[in-house]
Write a structure and sequence with these properties.
Length: 184
């Protein structure tokens, strides 16, 4: 749910810890849009019920969540170093649309976006390892020359005016690649 359509929502980064007694045996990061930290924690805890760490074979397991406000506006999430201000391994529910953000150069590793991701017209020069986009990925008008072998895109990959010459056989695209013949 984009925060620009719901101005009362804020974006939180929530770490869900999986514990036995007081020992943490796993942590997952979630990015959640909610009105407050309590709502963000509840949403992340609900999502974590499908986690690989929530294993019925582990007796007396429990979960706890810690929320940190990231921003109200996702476009504020680019740091001075050009990196998208999300930790490696983040899961973003919804879309990340950073089209034209020339200050953006780097995405975090193992980023999972359940909606669309657009870095078209940015200064991103390569995609991170472990990138998963459930809907479409738009990398048009970037200097990206190759795709990581573990890339997953559930829908369309838009690659107009890029330097990509070949697609590794391990890349998984759900629908099709659009504009690859329009490379630079």
């Amino acid at each position: 749910m984009p925060t620009d359509q719901h101005p009362d929502l804020r974006r939180f980064e929530v770490a869900v810890e999986f514990l036995v007694d007081q020992t943490v045996y796993g942590v997952e990061q979630y990015v959640v849009d909610a009105t407050d930290a309590s709502g963000a924690k509840r949403a992340a805890l609900s999502r974590s019920e499908n986690s690989r760490y929530d294993d019925d074979r582990i007796p007396d397991r429990r979960r706890r969540a810690r929320a940190k406000l990231i921003s109200k506006d996702p476009s504020e999430q680019v740091g001075r170093d050009g990196r998208l201000l999300l930790p490696d391994g983040s899961k973003v529910t919804g879309c990340i649309l950073l089209t034209g953000r020339t200050d953006l150069t780097t995405l975090p590793d193992d980023l999972h976006v359940t909606g669309n991701l657009s870095v078209a017209g940015t200064s991103v020069g390569q995609l991170p390892r472990g990138l998963r986009v459930s809907m479409f990925l738009d990398i048009s008008n970037t200097a990206i020359a190759e795709l990581p072998g573990d890339l997953y895109v559930g829908g369309y990959l838009y690659a107009r005016r890029t330097a990509i010459k070949r697609i590794p056989p391990t890349v998984r695209i759900g629908l099709e690649i659009v504009g690859l013949d329009e490379t630079t």
